[in-house]
């Protein structure tokens, strides 16, 4: 029939990530869920984890509709045993991990001198230690294969300071520093390490209060940045992306 490319109809174009296996931490909601959905739409097999069983199941159901192989597991990525289980079960189910998105994190705000040591540990463990633990678990197999993408979700709060942001900013500055050093450690092994720094995003994230939806980013905006990183050519890598809404609050 006129207007139909019979060659493409018989041999449909291969999805760009059809041979990839991705792990997205904190994939049960918000930014992590959007990233997982975008990677699955590009053909990747996707594993997600989170601490809330019900939220994780809802995200897994949405991912199932993509047609890509999916794996989900309740896990706390601040705990080495949970991280080990996540990685080993993902590889047993989906295959070797080629993309890691360290997205899990929490927000806690207020004057630093009013916070407790437990507050500090909770935020730094969730936002920074988890990046170290999950990356450390995934890197050895990436080194053996000589390839891989690690994408760490930081924040523009990792480049700026504001009242009440002491503990949160410290964690996100740490993610940027860790990412840069990892990139230098691993680039000769064929592994690309990138960091994404979004501004405020419209999610359930416990931030500094509600904002006008027209003046914040969408989770899909961050997912778009992740897609740009993992679909770039093999001879380059995007080291850092800053995302800002067009309208400034």
Features:
249 residues; alpha/beta; Rossmann fold; 7-stranded parallel β-sheet; 7 helices; 15% strand; globular; disordered N terminus
CATH fold call: Rossmann fold
Relevant CATH superfamily: NAD(P)-binding Rossmann-like Domain
Helix % is 40-55%
What would the average pLDDT be, to the nearest integer?
92
Strand content is 5-15%
Gyration radius over CA: 18 Å
Number of helices: 7
Q: By helix and strand content, what is the structural category? A: alpha/beta
CATH secondary-structure class: Alpha Beta
Read across the widest sheet, the strand sequence of neighbours is: 3-2-1-4-5-6-7
What count of domains describes the coordinates?
Answer: 1
Layout of secondary structure:
Elements: H1 6-10, E1 21-24, H2 30-41, E2 45-50, H3 53-64, E3 70-74, H4 80-94, E4 99-102, H5 117-145, E5 148-153, H6 166-186, E6 191-198, H7 219-230, E7 240-243
Parallel strand pairs: 1-2, 1-4, 2-3, 4-5, 5-6, 6-7
Sum this structure up briefly.
This protein is α/β, with parallel strands linked by helices and 249 residues long. The protein has helices at 6-10, 30-41, 53-64, 80-94, 117-145, 166-186, 219-230, and strands at 21-24, 45-50, 70-74, 99-102, 148-153, 191-198, 240-243.
